[in-house]
Design goal:
The structure holds two protein chains of two kinds. By secondary structure, chain A is an alpha+beta fold. Chain A folds into two domains: 33 residues; 74 residues, 2-Layer Sandwich (Alpha-Beta Plaits). Helix content of chain A is 42%, strand content 26%. Chain A has three helices and four strands; from the N terminus they run αβαββαβ. Chain A is globular. Chain A starts with a helix and ends in an 11-residue tail after the last strand. In chain B, strand 10 and strand 11 form a beta hairpin. Classes of the chains: A alpha+beta, B mainly beta.
Chain lengths: 119, 255
């Protein structure tokens, strides 16, 4: 009986350790693949067809993914691998090269929300 | 039909590398380093001749403010009661330089200078001619105020026609209104009302067309547009008056 109890206790312990290890592994995974989120206020965005040039310029920055552009609010948002985080000046230059005027550049560890109400 | 009269039609035909208005030029130069192409079919129906034009326009942005480009047009000319001809018409090169850019949230005002040179590459040795048979240099100013609710575009250009032929002053104005919310990726239907004009100071003759049009955009890289130009004022000889000019075109961003 004791042997049976010991077996189950060990099994439960292993299970907990396993879950714990897995949680730790997840946490490590999140740490190693952390992105930073970038929001740029862009002036002059008045035509959706013209915004393609902006998307292309931003995607030329190494590590940039998930570019979203909000024409109504004049915002460009995307995420970029933390280890490839560019200087704000580089981001402004990309916007200028696309033919628009950059304003505030915000870099955050949490994603920005885009208003999809009218989409 | 005389070569001069037909050549004159080619002198009057303006071809643009980019919209968004259909007939008036735009001061917004897409920051795409030229990886775009625009082509359209333009059917000109006159009292004594029909012309089909198919220009291919390729712009290239040297910088965000400076664009160069070329327009390679093909034309089919069918005079009434005469033989039809098809071939390369007059090739044009152009450059645009942005002079003013005032950007705001969801709006922009831009102004640019445009210089274009047309070469008499169209064969005019045989009748009917497929070109103006003369060098032409034009210099103009293109302005636009574009918001997410509407766009106003104006264009004024003076076209110098060599070999003693009359110069012409081009004056266009366009108003565009989007019918759908301005989102990205684009899904748009835009309607335009444009007035396209041409004044010949030497002859003191004026040509003014009203040009309604519609544009459909579905996706980031493809646009379809159509419009018709109807004469309001056309001070030309009887027999060469325009019935209508119909345009159906597309713009594709290649990469």
């Amino acid at each position: 009986m004791n042997l049976f109890i010991n077996f189950f206790a060990t099994l439960i312990l292993i299970l907990f350790i396993g879950i714990g290890t897995n949680l730790n592994a997840t946490a490590v995974l999140e740490d190693t693949t952390t992105y930073v989120y970038v929001k740029i206020e862009v002036k002059g965005l008045s035509c959706p067809f013209c915004a393609y040039g902006l998307e292309k310029k931003l995607k030329e920055i190494e590590g940039t993914t998930d570019v979203e552009i909000d024409i109504k609010e004049g915002l460009a948002m995307f995420r970029i691998a933390k280890d490839k985080q560019p200087e704000k000046e580089q981001l402004r230059k990309a916007v200028k090269d696309a033919g628009f005027t950059p304003e505030a550049v915000t870099i955050s560890t949490t994603p920005f929300k885009i208003d999809k109400d009218d989409k | 039909m005389s070569i001069t009269l037909l050549s004159f039609i080619f002198e009057m035909q303006e071809v643009k590398a980019q919209g968004p208005p259909i007939f008036t030029d735009t001061p917004i130069m897409l920051g795409l380093e030229g990886r775009g192409i625009r082509t359209f079919g333009r059917y000109i129906n006159k009292e004594n001749v029909s012309i089909y034009l198919q220009p291919i326009a390729i712009p290239y942005n040297l910088t965000a403010k400076w664009q160069v480009g070329t327009i390679v047009p093909f034309a089919a000319v069918s005079p009434q009661g005469g033989d039809s001809r098809f071939g390369l018409a007059d090739i044009k090169v152009f450059t645009k330089y942005q002079l003013v850019q005032k950007d705001g949230k969801g709006k922009t005002f831009r102004s640019l200078i445009k210089i274009a040179e047309a070469f008499p590459t169209g064969n005019t040795k045989k009748s009917p001619p497929i070109g103006a048979d003369v060098y032409q240099t034009s210099i103009g100013l293109v302005n636009g105020y574009v918001t997410t609710l509407y766009g106003i575009y104006t264009e004024v250009a003076y076209n110098i026609v060599f070999d003693g032929r009359p110069d012409n002053l081009i004056y266009n104005i366009g108003l565009g209104v989007p019918l759908l919310p301005q989102n990205y990726p684009p899904k748009q239907i835009n309607v335009f009302l444009e007035f396209t004009g041409n004044y010949l100071p030497d002859n003191k003759s004026n040509h003014l067309f009203i040009a309604p049009g519609i544009q459909w955009i579905n996706g980031k890289r493809f646009l379809l547009e159509t419009g018709i130009q109807l004469p309001l004022v056309e001070e030309v000889s009887e027999g060469v008056k325009t019935n209508f000019i119909y345009t159906l075109g597309t713009r594709i961003l290649l990469f």
